[in-house]
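Technical note accompanying the year-one report. For the benefit of new consortium partners, we illustrate the data format agreed upon in the data management plan: each record pairs a sequence with a structure-token string. No post-processing was applied to the example shown here.
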Amino acid sequence: MKVIDTHIHYGTDPNVASSTCVPYLITGQPDSVIRMLDEENASHGVLFPHDRVMSPPWDADYDKANQQIGEAVLKYPDRIAGLARINPTFGAEHTQKLLRKYVTEWGCRGVKLVAGYDFYRPNDLKVVGPMLDICQEYDLTVLFHSGDAPRDLPYLQAQAAKAYPNVRFVLAHIGMHTYLHEAILACKEYENVNVDMAQAWPYDIRIFLNHVGMDRLTYGSDTPYQSPEVEQLKLKVIGLTEAEQEKVFSLNARRIWRIA
């Protein structure tokens, strides 16, 4: 069956990761994204920039990196759904201006947030509220990196979801094992919270499904850091039926990321 990969970094910073599982996936080369999607039997991919400010530091608001996502989306609009990496600490006016530009210029589908790298709390609505206002206005999905203390914690992120019940949220990595049960609680309490399984252990996936069900989980490879072959295998060894695999590999992603 065709899959949708909901967690793809557009390459990485070679100063941070000198070796990756998908070394040919390179920032600024859209064809490398399509090659990876084809090799993992994916119809679509959700693509966003490298998480950190590049080394040596530049592009602090990620605008140049986001424009590279836009170039890939415009070249392959039927295969790539693009997200903008956002640092909301630049303030309401700057953040909203950038997001409106990304939506109108290249059809941005959502935002990727890493509070720990950008030094804010995801439940601080003074900081994240103006960004979430735009997400609500344009029907954008919010992807949080989750599972790293003290800022990237599922239950802090759930407070943003509580304040914005009409916005879809995804907690990446199902809380990165250590905070698995926080992610489960977030999904059980708030219907607009979902997770992706990138880097999660098969145990984590099985426990999440037992507690929450099949409709809130999507497949994500976390390339180039992880191997798509290994990440897909996790879903195939935990006893899912073919219909259940189809939900996690594809159908849930179509709803959460607005993929036709």
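Partners are asked to follow this layout when depositing records. The chain has a mean pLDDT of 97.
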